[in-house]
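REQUEST FORM: STRUCTURE PREDICTION
Request ID: SP-0412
Submitted by: Lab K.M.
Chain count: 1
Length (residues): 74
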Amino acid sequence: MISLAALFLFGWFFFKSVGLAFRVAWCAAKVVAAVLFVVALPLMVVGLLIGSIIKLALPLLLIAASFYLLKSCA
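STATUS: Completed
RESULT:
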């Protein structure tokens, strides 16, 4: 009977420790996600802005070059 009680007690401790480990891991994952959100989101926005500026700048540069060539030839 004592061995059944000890088995039940250790089983209960095991499941409580697994639950605690999941809670700690989830908390750590939330901290890492928050740090990544704070760091990566502004970097992503800056990268998207730079990428869109480059995509817009190339056609505008070609149009400006064509206007310059037309003005210099006439």
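NOTES: Helices lie at 2-73.
Reviewed by: T.R.
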